[in-house]
Amino acid sequence: xxxxxxxxxxxxxxxxxxxxxxxxxxxxxxxxxxxxxxxxxxxxxxxxxxxxxxxxxxxxxxxxxxxxxxxxxxxxxxxxxxxxxxxxxxxxxxxxxxxxxxxxxxxxxxxxxxxxxxxxxxxxxxxxxxxxxxxxxxxxxxxxxxxxxxxxxxxxxxxxxxxxxxxxxxxxxxxxxxxxxxxxxxxxxxxxxxxxxxxxxxxxxxxxxxxxxxxxxxxxxxxxxxxxxxxxxxxxxxxxxxxxxxxxxxxxxxxxxxxxxxxxxxxxxxxxxxxxxxxxxxxxxxxxxxxxxxxxxxxxxxxxxxxxxxxxxxxxxxxxxxxxxxxxxxxxxxxx
Length: 336
Hints:
- The protein is an alpha+beta fold.
- Helix content is about 50%, strand content about 15%.
- It contains 11 helices and 9 strands.
- The strands form 3 sheets. It has a 5-stranded antiparallel beta sheet with strand order 1-2-3-5-4, with helices on one face.
- Helix 4 (about 120-130) packs parallel to helix 8.
- It is globular.
- It starts with a helix and ends with a helix.
- The model has no long low-confidence stretch (mean pLDDT about 95).
- Keywords: Kinase, Transferase.
C-alpha cells in the first residue's frame, strides 16, 4: 500500500490533479486491469493501472491511443467517459514502469442481468447504431482486414496443462475436437464478414455502462476498433438479454435489435455466419486465460489464479454459446 500511495502522489503531481486526500480505494477493474478511486483537493478520479503483460505487446500502446481518440470523437454523439488528456497531450502516464490512465469520476452504477429490462436494451441498441453511423475517417485508423484469424494449437496447451496439473485439463480434453471445429468456423466466417467493417466500442456489455437513473455512460473503450456491424449488433444484443443463469430473454434480445434498427435501418445478413463469427473473440479470450494460467503471459499469482478460473468459465461459455446458435438463428430468421 505504501508503494501505491507514493505512486499516486507522484501521479497527482505530474498530472496536476491536486493533493491526494486519504488513501486510494480499490474498485472493480474488470478482468485485465486494476482500478482505484482517489480524491484530491481538486476532485475525484478513477485511476486505471494497465496490465503490465498487456503493455509488453508491440501494438498495445498504439491500440490504447487509438481507442481513446475514438472515444473522444464519438463523445459528441453518445455519452462516453474518455480518459483525461494530460498536459503533454497524451492519454497514458508512465510512472515506475507502470502505465496509468486517469478518468473523471462518474456517479453511476452498472446493472446486473436481473436489473436490465427491455427499455435498457432498446436504449443501448439505439446508441450502438449511433456509434456505427459515426464517421471516424478523420482519425485515419488503419482497417484490420482479416487480422483476427486464429491458428491456435489447443493440444499444446493441454499438454502444458497436464504437466502442471491445471484444473481445466479435463474440460479441455472433453472439448478439444470441438475447439478446432469452432476455430475453423470462426475463421471462415471472419473471412466472409471482414470486408464490411465499422469502428465501434467492441465490448459494450453491462459492466461497461454506468447508469445514473436512466442515463447511460459508456466506459472502458480500450477494445475499440474495427468490427463487422452485424457481429457487433448480435454480440451486444446477447450481452443485454442474458439472464444470470445464461438463458437469453427473447423480449430483451429483440428490444435491443429494434432499438438499433430505428437508428441504423433494416438489417439483412446470413445470421449463421454472424453467430459463427462470434466464436472468434471467445476462443481468443480462452487462449489468453490459458496463457495466464500457465504463467506464459502473467504478472503475479493473483493473475495466474484468475487465468485458471477464467479458462474454466470460458470453456463452459463457449460450449453454451454453441448450443444456443440454432435457436438464435431460428429467432433471427423468423423475426428479422
